[in-house]
Hints:
Layout: H1 2-24, H2 26-37, H3 43-68, E1 76-78, E2 83-85, E3 91-93, H4 100-110, H5 115-125, H6 134-137, E4 148-156, H7 158-163, E5 183-190, E6 196-208, E7 215-225, E8 228-231, E9 249-251, H8 257-263, E10 272-273, H9 277-285, E11 291-294, H10 301-313, E12 317-320, H11 321-326, E13 359-362, H12 366-375
Parallel strand pairs: 1-4, 9-10, 9-11
Antiparallel strand pairs: 2-3, 4-5, 5-6, 6-7, 7-8, 11-13, 12-13
Amino acid sequence: MADLLRCLLNVAEKAANVARVCRQEAPLFELLVQEKTGADKNKKFVQDFKTLADVVIQEMIRHDVCAQFPELTGFIQGEESNKFENGLGESVTVTVCAQQEDTTALLAKVLDGDQTAASLLSEVIHQDLQLQDQMAESLQISISPADVGIWIDPIDGTSQYIEGKEEEEPDEGFCVSGLPCALVLIGVYLRATGQPVMGVINQPFNRKDSTGKRWKGQHVWGVSYEDVNVCSLAQHRRSHAQKSEHLSVLLSSSERSEVKDALAKLSNGSLMFASGAGYKILCVLQGLADVYVLSEGSTFKWDSCAPHAILRALGGGVSDLSACMQAKNTEYATEITYHQPSEDQQSYGVDRWANQGGIIAYLDSSVIEKVIAVLAGTI
């Protein structure tokens, strides 16, 4: 299992490189700009490129992980479909080939013959990258890859990535929006129970380098399995829940007004808002917020699996908000699981994998009771 963690750290960093190269190299950046402005005449081509970055990352992760752990074949799921229709009306299935030149040729077909853009992407996909992480390298954990599955969100916060607002995280580490909110998320869960056991978060756009021209990233990982709870994130901050009667509550700006009003009572009227589900849970992990609450079923298994596993490693979790509201006692056995689709007969397609009851993400489980108390009768 430690070998799997090291593999995921490497592919997540390669994914971050793909995300960065799409913004740093002119042939690829022009396509992103066209998506943002809508100025390009070939709308279908531009729309395809918008999701191509996601799909390239997803299929690269799938390819690299299965090459090292073939027992995971068929158990790596992602947000994106890998089928495209190019400007000529041809249907193309994006995969990572064994040889770089073959991957280049396939991507060029998707990109209507844009050989330069295809070559740039292919070069990053096939790079031999070995990320150094001493803590991960020393980890000992006994679990077989044959017992787990993986959820990938190749670029969580795609709208922030496409918009490309180059706002760096301030010293306190919190951004409302912008490139820092775009994350690569890879979560591992037990096939038998759906319990999240390992998570890797890569933030490709954390800081600019010394030249101020290129972005540098950071990564966070955690493992929570049986008696092993290890996280790369040093907890420099104590939770507000441990030092104040008020909680810092993080929400989506699109959250219902009645939910905002109710939760404002916990935060002394000062709520926090940010973009990206993964980024909001990362803020909870970093101690920047006590709790992230979402009352709608608008997040999915690929959004929450990775950060959920890391929260568990720190003693926290991600629970189904609706189930918490319905629980009859304070022993909230309501954590989200990841191995089965929804049993709701009204759910189809990707909606079967939605966190339909909403979510509540926390480091300190005592916040659950406080959140439920103020939301009672509201949702």
